[in-house]
Amino acid sequence: MIWVGWRQQRWETIVAAAILAAIAALLIPTGLSMLSSYNNDGLNSCAGALQGGACDAAARSFIHEFDGIGNLIAWFTLVPGIIGILLAAPFVTDLERGTYRLDWTQGITRRRWIAGKLGIAVVTAIVAAGVFIALVTWWRTPLVRVQGRMDNSVFDSEGIVAIGYALFALGLAAAIGAIWRRTVPALVSAFALYFAVRLFVDTWLRQRLVSPLHATWAVNGRGPSLDKAWILSQVPTDQHGHALSLTVLNCSKAAGATCNTAVPTKGAVQYFQTVYHPPSHFWPLQSVEFALFAGAAALLLGLAALWTARRVA
Prior knowledge:
5 strands
């Protein structure tokens, strides 16, 4: 059954491998170029926070140089989902065409058939996502040393969450396909729902998975280290801790004011309050988000298996 399942999934596996090969063809030469620039600009000798002086100027120049390719690679966050949905296609196609009946009449039980089809897809998805993570993590290493990895476009492609994304997309497509038994509509619907869930997690849920830190400090004092941190909010406050709303001065109304200059509408800014996730929250956030997506994937795969075992004739 394993060999048969593998042969039935070989084209989807080849396509997934081709996607990863195309990514590698882009990342490897640009990654080597970026690593060379990182070393030549002397950034490897800038330890700790890049604040002021030659290190700060070199960091800005380095980031600007590779900003375009970095924005393009940010879209690669969709790749694990595409691979997961792609690998669900053989399972759904068999259900749509009814070819599973041939296997079931050849001495292969329903449970064995379901376990073989979904099991091979799960293993392939994990391996493909792991290769994707390794490629992107290697490519981003110089940028991460300068900018950190708490930004959404970086966070989504490093650590372990991409494995959870691939499994979730696989489970979602398999569950919808098992119920609907129409390959193209099921896969398209699965990707749309996957994208919506990812968008919700990226923009709202992620920052709440782990309690962020809160800090208040005087303007003339020393605040917390926000280098490479994910800042959720930062507002000026008065001496009583009340947030000060800002207004924009108009040049024609405020003598000597610069256009679009923001100043507090009441009182003078004495303190700042910041809500943020420090770099040390990277792995706690990764672990919780991975558990969330992997757990949902397990439930969806279980639904697909149970529905197929009990409802498919």
